[in-house]
Amino acid sequence: MNLIKEIEKILKVACEKAGYDENLSVSFSNMGNCDFQCNGCFALSKKYGKNPYDIAEDIVSKIDATIFKFEVSRPAFINIKVSDEGFGRLANFLLADEMGGLEKNEVSQKVLLDYGGANVAKALHIGHLRPAIIGESLKRLYRLLGDEVISDVHLGDWGLQMGLTELQLFEEGKLDGYFGGKEKYDITIEDLNEAYPAANKRKATDEEFKKKAEEWTLKIQQKESPYYDIYKVIRELSVKEISANYLKLGASFELWKGESDAHDFCDEAVNIIKEKGLAKLSEGALIVEVAGEGENVPAGKNEDGTIRYNNPMPPCLIQKSNGAYLYATTDIATILMRNKEYTLDRIEYVTDGRQKMHFNQVFRVCKKSGISPQEQKLVHVINGTMNGRDGKPFKTRSGDTVKLEDIIAMLMDKAKEKLVSNGAASDDETALMIGVGAMKFGDLSNTVSKDYVFDIDKFMAFEGKTGPYLQYMVVRINSILEKLNGKQGGEIFIDCEEEREILRTIIKLNSSYQICYRERSLNALCTALYDLASAFATFYNNHNIINESDENRQKSFISLITLVRKKMLQALDVLAINVPKKM
Fold first, then answer.
1. How far is CA 398 from the centre of its chain?
2. What distances in angstroms separate CA 12 from CA 47, 55, 79, 153, 511, one per listed residue?
3. Tens of pLDDT along 291-350?
4. What's the pTM?
5. Rounded CA gap, 197 and 121, in Å?
6. Nearest CA among 383, 444, 418, 419 for reference residue 250
7. Which of 122, 126, 116 has the alpha carbon at shortest distance from 407?
């Protein structure tokens, strides 16, 4: 039962009776005197040569509806108010309906969602946080609305960092067992967390070390023993650690593929591009021109003599002069691999804005070459950065990038502090749910593409528009139902403004899912969910559910708060926020 669609059907019939062959749309009203509003009569005035107010009057005069009240207000608005009977019917339908009145998309699509991007041999850091949070929620949203979604972490596991890490470990004497030594050293995640940063610093100043690491990387990519054997050990160890940290965030993946899996498709991808006549040589390297009309227009020279361009869109470099493939080649090959393995309507990537140019180039090459069918959508969901209170990217006091596990530990410590101050238990499981839930809601409440400030005190507040507040509202409902000792609810009937507001917010909550789907951002859902929690809080403060003396009224209350819990849990699940037993 979709009230907006029901009202639009009534208006359609009334329009036909009044002589207007029109479909009028209905929206939520911000006016206090009605629930919905139709503004379509203004557009009809020119078409039919009549005053819009008169048109609205014509239409409303032909309406015969029992659960809706239609009124015309100047200059030409049709205001619609839902009767208590109408809200009651809706509430009982929502409670009984498996989806709580949420409608799936008319057409289901098959989507591959790439939102991991973790690098093997490197610790997850704060840069991996937003893609994981956003990607996981988009996956859940798409599935709830009927899409078939495959999620892929797409590991960075085939680049120079592998050669750097192995070479550093070798020079530390930890790989002797692989090169004829007596015993093999058991590499640990701590070894990797120390080896890569050390090697990465060395390559910046030690050209010989860098060159040797490149040679080492090539041997890994050629699957030469023991270099490739060591690589497999490091990859397995890293994946185990990466998986554990993603699990703490509530993020999971069907596929744990990486650049190494796409490597075998690079030759084929480049050959396809060549056969299409798209590749050309530039100083020995292979490039593909991807600029469109009005892009990459020469506009003079820079001080160093290089050409300056307006609306720059440089060519996509797919192969170096020495024959080596690049990051772009691997991503093109990945799309080729995915389209060989699956029939996909969409492939979506969640990363920060620094990769905007890269994906733009890759997508254009794939469309020009036919590697991606024309009807297939390639989407780059750009996330903003998480900044500190100074407005700059969040860093440690020393200026280093913050590790993801340190962020999680910080959130858990803050959650425990809040729980203790509230006189509640502060076990690790509860602290993790509250801490991570606070982080996720604070993140997803913002438009995906915008930067935001990481304010742990604000996010962790148990009041206001926060994750812990929403969790607490569900815990409160659970507590009420528990104190009722198994009393069952009955038919919901609506007879007060607090109940009407709960139903209005549920209607808006259901509508927010499609907004989030279109915009690929969860902020509308977060706002609607908070509004429902606030409406419940007002209802709870004004009605003594447990001690209500009227049995039928109490049963109605029980069913109503059960409906609120159902809709809140549905939304929280999309946001991948769990609810603890106690707070």
1. 31
2. 17, 13, 15, 48, 21
3. 999 998 888 888 888 888 888 899 999 999 988 899 999 999 999 999 999 999 999 999
4. 0.93
5. 10
6. 444
7. 126
